[in-house]
Amino acid sequence: MENKKKFKPDPDLKLMEQVREVLRYHHYAYRTEQTYCDWIKRFLKFYGMKQHPKDMGAAEVERWLSHLASEGKVAASTQRQALNAIIFLYREVLDIELGEISPMRSKKQRKPPTVLTQNEVQQVLRSMEGTHRLMAQLLYGCGLRLMECIRLRIQDIDFGQGRIFVRCGKGGKDRTVVLPESVRSLLAEHVEKVAELHETDLRAGFGEVYIPDALARKYPNACRETGWQYVFPSKSRSIDPRSGKEMRHHVMESGLQKAVKAAVRNAGIVKRAGCHTMRHSFATHLLENGVNIRLVQELMGHKDVKTTEIYTHVMNKDIDAVKSPLDLL
Protein backbone atom coordinates (compact mmCIF):
# COMPACT_ATOMS: atom_id res chain seq x y z
CA MET A 1 0.00 0.00 0.00
CA GLU A 2 1.48 3.33 -1.09
CA ASN A 3 2.11 6.05 1.48
CA LYS A 4 -0.09 9.11 1.20
CA LYS A 5 1.77 12.04 -0.32
CA LYS A 6 2.71 14.53 2.38
CA PHE A 7 1.49 18.10 2.02
CA LYS A 8 4.31 20.58 1.57
CA PRO A 9 3.84 24.29 2.28
CA ASP A 10 4.65 27.01 -0.23
CA PRO A 11 8.45 27.56 0.05
CA ASP A 12 8.04 31.23 -0.90
CA LEU A 13 6.03 31.92 2.26
CA LYS A 14 7.60 33.03 5.54
CA LEU A 15 7.94 30.36 8.23
CA MET A 16 4.88 31.32 10.31
CA GLU A 17 2.77 31.62 7.15
CA GLN A 18 3.89 28.10 6.22
CA VAL A 19 2.88 26.87 9.68
CA ARG A 20 -0.61 28.37 9.27
CA GLU A 21 -0.92 26.94 5.76
CA VAL A 22 -0.20 23.41 7.00
CA LEU A 23 -2.45 23.78 10.07
CA ARG A 24 -5.33 24.84 7.85
CA TYR A 25 -4.63 22.08 5.33
CA HIS A 26 -5.07 19.56 8.18
CA HIS A 27 -8.21 21.39 9.41
CA TYR A 28 -6.89 22.27 12.86
CA ALA A 29 -9.20 24.44 14.95
CA TYR A 30 -8.50 28.17 14.83
CA ARG A 31 -7.79 28.21 18.58
CA THR A 32 -5.23 25.40 18.11
CA GLU A 33 -3.68 27.35 15.25
CA GLN A 34 -3.23 30.38 17.53
CA THR A 35 -1.80 28.25 20.35
CA TYR A 36 0.70 26.39 18.16
CA CYS A 37 1.86 29.61 16.49
CA ASP A 38 2.36 31.25 19.90
CA TRP A 39 4.53 28.35 21.13
CA ILE A 40 6.61 28.30 17.96
CA LYS A 41 7.21 32.07 18.27
CA ARG A 42 8.25 31.60 21.92
CA PHE A 43 10.67 28.87 20.86
CA LEU A 44 12.24 31.14 18.22
CA LYS A 45 12.42 34.12 20.60
CA PHE A 46 14.20 31.97 23.19
CA TYR A 47 17.09 31.70 20.72
CA GLY A 48 16.93 35.40 19.84
CA MET A 49 15.26 34.89 16.45
CA LYS A 50 18.79 34.36 15.08
CA GLN A 51 18.50 30.73 13.97
CA HIS A 52 16.09 29.04 11.63
CA PRO A 53 14.49 25.95 13.22
CA LYS A 54 15.89 23.71 10.47
CA ASP A 55 19.40 24.66 11.68
CA MET A 56 18.49 23.50 15.20
CA GLY A 57 17.44 20.12 16.50
CA ALA A 58 16.54 17.94 19.47
CA ALA A 59 19.21 19.47 21.73
CA GLU A 60 17.81 23.00 21.30
CA VAL A 61 14.24 21.79 21.76
CA GLU A 62 15.22 19.91 24.95
CA ARG A 63 16.95 22.97 26.35
CA TRP A 64 13.90 25.18 25.71
CA LEU A 65 11.45 22.67 27.18
CA SER A 66 13.69 22.24 30.24
CA HIS A 67 13.75 26.03 30.61
CA LEU A 68 9.93 26.07 30.61
CA ALA A 69 9.93 23.54 33.45
CA SER A 70 12.77 24.94 35.57
CA GLU A 71 12.45 28.69 35.05
CA GLY A 72 8.94 29.07 33.68
CA LYS A 73 7.46 26.64 36.24
CA VAL A 74 4.83 25.59 33.70
CA ALA A 75 2.45 22.71 34.38
CA ALA A 76 3.10 19.29 32.86
CA SER A 77 0.16 19.71 30.46
CA THR A 78 1.50 23.10 29.31
CA GLN A 79 4.94 21.67 28.65
CA ARG A 80 3.36 18.82 26.68
CA GLN A 81 1.36 21.31 24.61
CA ALA A 82 4.57 23.23 23.81
CA LEU A 83 6.27 19.98 22.76
CA ASN A 84 3.34 19.06 20.49
CA ALA A 85 3.59 22.46 18.76
CA ILE A 86 7.33 22.05 18.10
CA ILE A 87 6.94 18.47 16.89
CA PHE A 88 4.26 19.70 14.48
CA LEU A 89 6.65 22.40 13.21
CA TYR A 90 9.45 19.95 12.49
CA ARG A 91 7.45 16.95 11.30
CA GLU A 92 4.65 18.57 9.28
CA VAL A 93 6.16 21.90 8.16
CA LEU A 94 9.93 21.31 7.90
CA ASP A 95 9.67 17.53 7.22
CA ILE A 96 12.36 16.81 9.83
CA GLU A 97 12.23 14.05 12.46
CA LEU A 98 13.63 15.31 15.74
CA GLY A 99 14.26 11.87 17.22
CA GLU A 100 14.19 11.24 20.96
CA ILE A 101 13.64 14.26 23.20
CA SER A 102 14.15 13.95 26.97
CA PRO A 103 13.78 17.37 28.63
CA MET A 104 13.45 18.07 32.34
CA ARG A 105 9.82 17.25 33.04
CA SER A 106 7.41 19.55 34.83
CA LYS A 107 6.00 17.93 37.93
CA LYS A 108 2.49 16.65 37.43
CA GLN A 109 0.47 17.82 40.39
CA ARG A 110 -2.99 16.37 40.71
CA LYS A 111 -4.95 18.57 43.08
CA PRO A 112 -8.50 17.77 44.14
CA PRO A 113 -10.93 20.04 42.27
CA THR A 114 -12.71 22.95 43.93
CA VAL A 115 -16.36 22.06 44.40
CA LEU A 116 -19.29 24.19 45.50
CA THR A 117 -22.08 22.82 47.67
CA GLN A 118 -25.59 22.78 46.19
CA ASN A 119 -26.48 25.74 48.39
CA GLU A 120 -23.43 27.66 47.14
CA VAL A 121 -24.32 26.91 43.50
CA GLN A 122 -27.80 28.27 44.20
CA GLN A 123 -26.31 31.45 45.69
CA VAL A 124 -24.04 31.96 42.69
CA LEU A 125 -26.89 31.49 40.18
CA ARG A 126 -29.09 33.91 42.14
CA SER A 127 -26.34 36.51 41.83
CA MET A 128 -26.48 36.28 38.03
CA GLU A 129 -29.04 37.38 35.48
CA GLY A 130 -29.91 37.24 31.79
CA THR A 131 -27.98 35.16 29.27
CA HIS A 132 -24.98 34.69 31.55
CA ARG A 133 -27.24 33.10 34.19
CA LEU A 134 -28.70 30.74 31.58
CA MET A 135 -25.22 29.76 30.43
CA ALA A 136 -24.06 29.15 34.02
CA GLN A 137 -27.14 26.99 34.60
CA LEU A 138 -26.12 24.84 31.62
CA LEU A 139 -22.52 24.58 32.88
CA TYR A 140 -23.78 23.18 36.18
CA GLY A 141 -26.94 21.42 35.00
CA CYS A 142 -25.23 19.56 32.13
CA GLY A 143 -21.60 19.40 33.27
CA LEU A 144 -20.45 21.35 30.22
CA ARG A 145 -16.98 22.75 29.74
CA LEU A 146 -16.86 26.49 29.09
CA MET A 147 -16.19 26.23 25.35
CA GLU A 148 -18.70 23.39 24.93
CA CYS A 149 -21.38 25.77 26.19
CA ILE A 150 -20.12 28.72 24.13
CA ARG A 151 -20.03 26.63 20.93
CA LEU A 152 -23.49 25.06 21.20
CA ARG A 153 -25.51 25.22 17.97
CA ILE A 154 -29.32 25.44 17.86
CA GLN A 155 -29.55 21.97 16.28
CA ASP A 156 -27.59 20.49 19.21
CA ILE A 157 -30.59 21.01 21.50
CA ASP A 158 -33.36 18.41 21.36
CA PHE A 159 -36.27 19.86 23.33
CA GLY A 160 -38.46 16.85 22.52
CA GLN A 161 -36.18 14.26 24.11
CA GLY A 162 -34.71 16.68 26.66
CA ARG A 163 -31.14 16.19 25.44
CA ILE A 164 -28.17 18.33 24.49
CA PHE A 165 -25.65 16.93 22.03
CA VAL A 166 -22.06 18.04 22.68
CA ARG A 167 -20.17 17.99 19.38
CA CYS A 168 -16.37 17.75 19.21
CA GLY A 169 -15.73 18.13 22.92
CA LYS A 170 -12.29 17.67 24.42
CA GLY A 171 -10.35 15.15 22.35
CA GLY A 172 -12.81 15.58 19.47
CA LYS A 173 -15.40 13.37 21.19
CA ASP A 174 -19.18 13.69 20.98
CA ARG A 175 -21.51 12.93 23.87
CA THR A 176 -25.11 13.40 25.01
CA VAL A 177 -26.18 15.11 28.23
CA VAL A 178 -29.55 15.70 29.86
CA LEU A 179 -31.29 19.05 29.31
CA PRO A 180 -32.40 20.25 32.77
CA GLU A 181 -36.19 20.56 32.96
CA SER A 182 -35.86 23.78 34.99
CA VAL A 183 -34.26 25.69 32.10
CA ARG A 184 -36.11 24.14 29.17
CA SER A 185 -38.68 26.93 28.71
CA LEU A 186 -36.09 29.69 29.27
CA LEU A 187 -33.74 28.10 26.73
CA ALA A 188 -36.58 27.69 24.22
CA GLU A 189 -37.44 31.41 24.52
CA HIS A 190 -33.77 32.31 24.12
CA VAL A 191 -33.44 30.15 20.98
CA GLU A 192 -36.51 31.85 19.47
CA LYS A 193 -34.84 35.25 19.93
CA VAL A 194 -31.63 33.93 18.34
CA ALA A 195 -33.66 32.65 15.35
CA GLU A 196 -35.23 36.11 14.97
CA LEU A 197 -31.78 37.71 15.07
CA HIS A 198 -30.64 35.31 12.35
CA GLU A 199 -33.62 36.27 10.17
CA THR A 200 -32.62 39.92 10.59
CA ASP A 201 -29.07 39.08 9.46
CA LEU A 202 -30.38 37.22 6.42
CA ARG A 203 -32.56 40.17 5.39
CA ALA A 204 -29.49 42.40 5.67
CA GLY A 205 -27.58 40.14 3.28
CA PHE A 206 -25.54 38.32 5.92
CA GLY A 207 -26.49 35.33 8.12
CA GLU A 208 -23.50 33.06 7.53
CA VAL A 209 -21.85 31.24 10.42
CA TYR A 210 -18.62 29.26 10.59
CA ILE A 211 -18.95 25.52 10.01
CA PRO A 212 -16.14 22.94 9.57
CA ASP A 213 -14.53 22.91 6.12
CA ALA A 214 -15.60 19.37 5.18
CA LEU A 215 -19.25 20.11 5.99
CA ALA A 216 -19.06 23.49 4.25
CA ARG A 217 -17.99 21.75 1.03
CA LYS A 218 -20.62 19.03 1.33
CA TYR A 219 -23.46 21.37 2.33
CA PRO A 220 -22.62 24.81 0.86
CA ASN A 221 -25.87 26.40 2.12
CA ALA A 222 -25.68 25.01 5.66
CA CYS A 223 -23.86 28.10 6.93
CA ARG A 224 -27.09 30.11 6.48
CA GLU A 225 -29.42 27.59 8.10
CA THR A 226 -30.95 28.41 11.49
CA GLY A 227 -29.92 25.08 12.97
CA TRP A 228 -26.23 25.84 12.50
CA GLN A 229 -26.39 29.20 14.29
CA TYR A 230 -24.76 29.47 17.70
CA VAL A 231 -27.12 29.31 20.67
CA PHE A 232 -25.16 32.16 22.26
CA PRO A 233 -24.25 34.49 19.38
CA SER A 234 -22.21 37.65 19.61
CA LYS A 235 -24.11 40.95 19.75
CA SER A 236 -22.37 42.14 16.61
CA ARG A 237 -21.06 40.59 13.42
CA SER A 238 -17.31 40.36 12.82
CA ILE A 239 -14.87 39.41 10.07
CA ASP A 240 -13.96 35.72 10.08
CA PRO A 241 -10.11 35.56 10.22
CA ARG A 242 -9.89 32.69 7.72
CA SER A 243 -12.55 33.36 5.10
CA GLY A 244 -12.58 37.15 5.43
CA LYS A 245 -16.42 37.11 5.41
CA GLU A 246 -18.60 39.08 7.82
CA MET A 247 -20.28 36.56 10.11
CA ARG A 248 -21.93 36.34 13.52
CA HIS A 249 -19.65 34.31 15.76
CA HIS A 250 -20.39 33.01 19.25
CA VAL A 251 -19.90 35.21 22.31
CA MET A 252 -16.45 35.62 23.85
CA GLU A 253 -15.83 33.25 26.75
CA SER A 254 -14.34 36.05 28.85
CA GLY A 255 -17.81 37.59 29.38
CA LEU A 256 -19.14 34.46 31.10
CA GLN A 257 -15.91 33.97 33.04
CA LYS A 258 -16.12 37.48 34.48
CA ALA A 259 -19.83 37.10 35.26
CA VAL A 260 -19.28 33.85 37.21
CA LYS A 261 -16.31 35.32 39.10
CA ALA A 262 -18.36 38.39 40.05
CA ALA A 263 -21.30 36.19 41.15
CA VAL A 264 -19.03 34.06 43.36
CA ARG A 265 -17.65 37.22 44.94
CA ASN A 266 -21.12 38.78 45.42
CA ALA A 267 -22.36 35.55 47.01
CA GLY A 268 -19.64 35.91 49.64
CA ILE A 269 -17.97 32.63 48.67
CA VAL A 270 -14.23 32.63 49.38
CA LYS A 271 -13.43 29.48 47.39
CA ARG A 272 -11.39 29.91 44.23
CA ALA A 273 -14.28 29.13 41.91
CA GLY A 274 -14.95 29.81 38.23
CA CYS A 275 -16.79 28.36 35.23
CA HIS A 276 -15.07 24.96 35.44
CA THR A 277 -16.06 24.71 39.12
CA MET A 278 -19.65 24.33 37.92
CA ARG A 279 -18.66 21.23 35.95
CA HIS A 280 -16.74 19.82 38.93
CA SER A 281 -19.77 20.44 41.15
CA PHE A 282 -22.09 18.71 38.64
CA ALA A 283 -20.05 15.48 38.76
CA THR A 284 -19.58 15.54 42.54
CA HIS A 285 -23.27 16.13 43.26
CA LEU A 286 -24.29 13.30 40.91
CA LEU A 287 -21.99 10.89 42.77
CA GLU A 288 -23.29 12.13 46.14
CA ASN A 289 -26.83 11.43 44.91
CA GLY A 290 -25.91 7.83 44.11
CA VAL A 291 -25.52 8.01 40.32
CA ASN A 292 -23.28 5.21 39.03
CA ILE A 293 -19.72 6.40 38.41
CA ARG A 294 -19.69 4.85 34.91
CA LEU A 295 -22.71 6.94 33.94
CA VAL A 296 -21.06 10.05 35.40
CA GLN A 297 -17.96 9.21 33.34
CA GLU A 298 -20.12 9.08 30.20
CA LEU A 299 -21.91 12.35 31.00
CA MET A 300 -18.58 14.09 31.67
CA GLY A 301 -16.97 12.68 28.51
CA HIS A 302 -14.00 11.22 30.39
CA LYS A 303 -11.90 8.70 28.48
CA ASP A 304 -10.79 6.92 31.67
CA VAL A 305 -12.90 6.31 34.77
CA LYS A 306 -9.84 7.22 36.87
CA THR A 307 -10.42 10.83 35.82
CA THR A 308 -13.97 10.60 37.19
CA GLU A 309 -12.76 8.95 40.40
CA ILE A 310 -11.05 12.19 41.47
CA TYR A 311 -14.50 13.51 42.44
CA THR A 312 -14.91 10.74 45.01
CA HIS A 313 -12.19 12.50 47.03
CA VAL A 314 -14.28 15.66 47.44
CA MET A 315 -17.67 14.05 48.12
CA ASN A 316 -19.38 15.02 51.35
CA LYS A 317 -21.48 11.90 51.72
CA ASP A 318 -18.87 9.69 53.41
CA ILE A 319 -16.90 12.48 55.09
CA ASP A 320 -19.97 13.79 56.91
CA ALA A 321 -20.41 10.44 58.65
CA VAL A 322 -16.91 10.63 60.14
CA LYS A 323 -16.37 12.19 63.55
CA SER A 324 -13.10 13.88 64.37
CA PRO A 325 -11.28 12.14 67.26
CA LEU A 326 -11.19 15.55 68.97
CA ASP A 327 -15.01 15.50 69.18
CA LEU A 328 -14.88 12.09 70.86
CA LEU A 329 -12.78 13.27 73.80
TrEMBL record:
Top-rank taxon: Bacteria
GO BP term (any one): DNA recombination
Molecular function, one GO term: DNA binding
SUPFAM superfamilies: DNA breaking-rejoining enzymes (SSF56349)
Plastid among keywords: no
Domain Core-binding (CB): 13-94
Record Pfam families: Phage_int_SAM_4 (PF13495), Phage_integrase (PF00589)
All copies of domain Tyr recombinase, residue ranges: 111-324
Keywords: DNA integration, DNA recombination, DNA-binding
Gene3D superfamilies given in the database record: 1.10.150.130, Intergrase catalytic core
InterPro entries associated with the record: CB, DNA_brk_join_enz, Integrase-like_cat_sf, Integrase_catalytic, Integrase_integron-type, Integrase_recombinase_N, Integrase_SAM-like_N, Tyrosine_recombinase_XerCD
Record family assignment: Belongs to the 'phage' integrase family.
Name of the protein in its database record: Tyrosine recombinase XerD
Annotated source species: Pontiella sulfatireligans
